[in-house]
Design brief:
- This protein is an alpha/beta fold and 456 residues long.
- The chain has three domains: 183 residues, Rossmann fold, CATH 3.40.50; 112 residues, OB fold (Dihydrolipoamide Acetyltransferase, E2P) (Beta Barrel); 82 residues, Helicase, Ruva Protein, domain 3, CATH 1.10.8.60.
- It is built from 15 helices and 19 strands.
- The strands form five sheets. Strands 5, 6, 7, 8, 9, 10, 11 and 12 form an eight-stranded mixed beta sheet that branches.
- It starts with 34 loop residues before the first strand and ends in a 7-residue tail after the last helix.
- It is found in: Nucleus.
- GO terms for molecular function: ATP binding; DNA helicase activity; hydrolase activity; transcription coregulator activity.
- Belongs to the RuvB family.
- Proposed core component of the chromatin remodeling Ino80 complex which is involved in transcriptional regulation, DNA replication and probably DNA repair.
Amino acid sequence: MKVEEVKSTIKTQRISAHSHVKGLGLDENGFAIAQAAGLVGQEQAREAAGIVVDMIRSKKMAGRAVLLAGPPGTGKTAIALAIAQELGNKVPFCPMVGSEVYSSEIKKTEVLMENFRRAIGLRVRETKEIYEGEVCELSPVETEHPVGGQGKSVSHVVIGLRTAKGTKQLKLDPNIYEALQKERVEVGDVIYIEALSGAIKRQGRSDAFATEFDLEAEEYVPLPKGDVHKKKEVVQDVTLHDLDAANAKPQGGQDVLSMMGQLLRSKKTEITDKLRKEVNKIVDKYIDQGIAELVPGVLFIDEVHMLDIETFTYLHKALESAIAPIVIFATNRGRCLIRGTDDIYSPHGIPLDLLDRLLIIRTVPYDRPDMEQILKLRAKTEGLEIDDNALTALGAVGTKATLRYAVQLLTPAHLTAKGNKRTNITVADVEEVSFLFLDAKQSAKILSENSAKFMQ
């Protein structure tokens, strides 16, 4: 198994309502700052989450999980994401909802295990032989085309690399010249070339070229120190699911039956326990050799009340596993029926024996000033200009309806302002979109008043 050939399958984060969350926003004593790191209010819940982060860092969360319980739109997902951000940027964060486990193609427990392993990272450190330096010469050498004719072909490339210690000239194959063109490498760029694979990585523009006239550079980096030819530690982050998926790919033959079998194969195939055990053996071997280290991430299961009694039972085993991520549940339900049973009611729809394992954090509805701060923050994140009076009007809408609905009105209000040849959102824009659209309470009222006109 080659780790460098594994492509990450981590679920990419959407640019969404929580893209601005950068952490829990706590001070050095663990107390919540009113507005910090993209979070507003919920001081008690954030301080409790800070204690959870300390427990995770001190490795005291084994066999436990966290439950965020509160009404809709009170920041449960934001706090879960903030916990992951506090643990580090490279820590995997795998969000899912309880209804994801119900599939006609794959078992419920398999969906859970797949997401568990998505939330467990493996940081692999490899020492590679590389050539690193600032490009001081880049000369393709052309020769006559071997087939004949008027054209010429690149036979090799001469590249000069400079460091603070000296300069070295390299003779590279034509295919590496194509890689240089793909990376848009020019004289003055700092790059490194892997000696064995020939892979090229552009690190940035040398800071010696950092002048007001050099406008094309995206990032300036210092001139490398030491020799051009050196050994360097390269760090790569993958997840256990990446390794599972890479080793579960079907290796079919070239005959018709093999190719047809691959075409007819279900897109979502189960990974066997036997394969996972083999991957775990290799991971353990890497860890024992000091090549890699495990990075437990965060698995966030929203709408946990949608899980049934079978999956809750399986969660017990998964939480007690030696290799397990930090699991955070969230729900907006009170006392309700446990799915998969006929007469068993429990708080949040979770069995009592699992509730005993959970640290429960409560979130409360936002008041109007907090709503206005959140709306202001969202407008800034989305690059929208909004008047103070319009912000107050949206805060009133959020108090009357919900915060989510008020946030949803930001973009329609911006488009209305744009249609009126303005760049900023005013009270008139908020009033217009409030008239055009209905919130859930208004819609329910209309349904009840005109129930005879609707199908029952």
